[in-house]
Amino acid sequence: MPVQSCRVCGREFFREPLLHFANMPKAAQNFPDAGTLAGDRGVDLTVCQCSGCGLVQLAGDPVPYYREVIRASAVSPELKESKTAQFRRFVEKYDLRGKAVLEIGCGRGDFLSLLAALGEVRACGLEYAEASVARCLQDGLAVTRGYVEHAGTVLAGAPFDAFLLLMFLEHLPDPNAALQGIARNLKDGAVGLVEVPSFDMVLRNNLFSEFIGDHLFYFTRETLQTTLNLNGFEILEFSELRNDYVLSAVVKKRASLDLSRFRDTQAAIRAGLAACVARFGAKRVAVWGAGHQALAILALMELAGGIRYVVDGAPFKQNKFTPATHLPIVAPDTLRTDPVDAVIVIAGSYSDEVAGILRAKFDPRLSVFILRESGLETV
Predict the structure, then answer these.
(1) Using omega within 30 degrees of 0 as the cis cutoff, is the peptide bond preceding 173 cis?
(2) Residue 291 clears pLDDT 80, i.e. is over it
(3) What angle do CA 125, 129, 130 make, to 5 degrees?
(4) Of the residues 24, 135, 291, 347, which has the fewest C-beta atoms closer than 10 A?
(5) Mapping DSSP to helix (H, G, I), strand (E, B) and coil, where does residue 263 land?
(6) Which long-range contacts (CB under 8 A, 24 or more apart) does 271-279 make?
(7) What pLDDT digit, counting tens, does each position of 241-278 carry?
(8) Residue that wins the pLDDT comparison between 229 and 38
(9) What pLDDT does residue 302 have?
(10) Within a 10 A sphere around the Cβ of 334, how many other Cβ atoms?
(11) CATH superfamily assigned to domain 63-253
């Protein structure tokens, strides 16, 4: 069944396909022999683009062997040299010596053997094709048979410190599941090297012959970054290799933010506000500002019992109450009719302006403070 929406972001394709090719080869690795030639038929390829993320992709099904990596041509001496140098830089720059690096879709070990030959990492491989796994094992490579089928896939030897995904992502019908599954099997802070054919180069050179049923996706730099970002990876580096034919991205597994410093700041501000209220006495302090920051501060600091009222210049807020803390919201003139000894200004970018009004138009004996990120500041 033709796919109707983007396999990555889920948005609909543009209404009209970009291209339609009739009687194309079924697959790059489908070569009929004399006995099967009569039954060989071409297929139609429909090239679509996502209206959301912009990713170009085929609307058809993957080839039957999409889980297997098939590199028909031998790795040339020039490519061996450049890949070895690339892997060495990757290991050195990201401090991977002695650590476990997994190549997902290692095929017969063409690239994995180069990584292993460095002698600096524990090079591991994952490959679905039985014959390829057997060849890798015969060559002394640490390869397991398997495929990252879904986001919950657990791989033998996990978690890994780094991974390689080389010229494989464009074949996979569910790149989200594959990338999320890879991330699940990585340590926090793990890095990866992801490479795909460059559709930027195809566009620059009008290479209409680059479309084939094996490649479901045609990544530009922008759409590759979007795909990686959506699935838990940050981009550390981007480059184009092999005469711009290959997009190469170094990525890092996204980590959860550490916001423990927020708690430290909250505790410090709470202590400062509590000391201010205690200094003037309960109900002798007002707050100016009924914006979202002030409302949050009133709730988080648990000081509502010591605040007399909240002043705000917006008429639609006046004669109402603060959510959760239930303090009355009053007009500025209340500072004259029902005076307090101190006002704490919590008005975001307007705080200095409000403090100026308080100093210019109200009792000069009024103590005025602005709540800054660093705590209370006397005006």
Answers:
(1) no
(2) yes
(3) 95
(4) 24
(5) helix
(6) 272/375, 272/376, 273/297, 273/301, 273/303, 273/344, 273/371, 273/376, 274/301, 274/303, 276/342, 276/344, 276/369, 276/376, 277/303, 277/306, 277/307, 278/306, 279/342
(7) 989 999 999 999 999 999 999 999 999 999 999 999 99
(8) 229
(9) 84
(10) 18
(11) Vaccinia Virus protein VP39 (3.40.50.150)
CA 255 to chain centroid? 9
CATH 3.40.50.720 fits 260-378, yes or no: yes
- Crossing angle of helices 175-184 and 221-230, in 10° steps, is 50
Model pLDDT, residue 98: 97
Which residues, in sequence order, are CB contacts of 170 under 8 Å at separation 6+?
A: 196, 197, 215, 216, 217, 218, 219
Pairwise CA distance, residues 340 & 338, whole Å: 7
- With a CB cutoff of 8 Å and minimum separation 6, the contacts of 109 are 125, 132, 135, 136, 139, 141, 143
Residue with tokens 């090079």: 123
Domain ranges within the chain, ordered by starting residue: 63-253, 260-378
Specify the 3-state DSSP secondary structure of 370: strand
In sequence order, the 6+-apart residues with CB closer than 8 A to the CB of 134 are none
- Indicate if 260-378 has the same CATH topology as 63-253: yes
How confident is the model over 308-330, as a mean pLDDT? 97
Q: Which two tokens stand for residue 202?
A: 């195809």
Residues whose CB falls within 8 Å of the CB of residue 282, separated by 6 or more in sequence, listed in order: 305, 306
Tens of pLDDT along 86-117? 999 999 999 999 999 999 999 999 999 999 99
Mean of per-residue pLDDT scores for the chain:
95
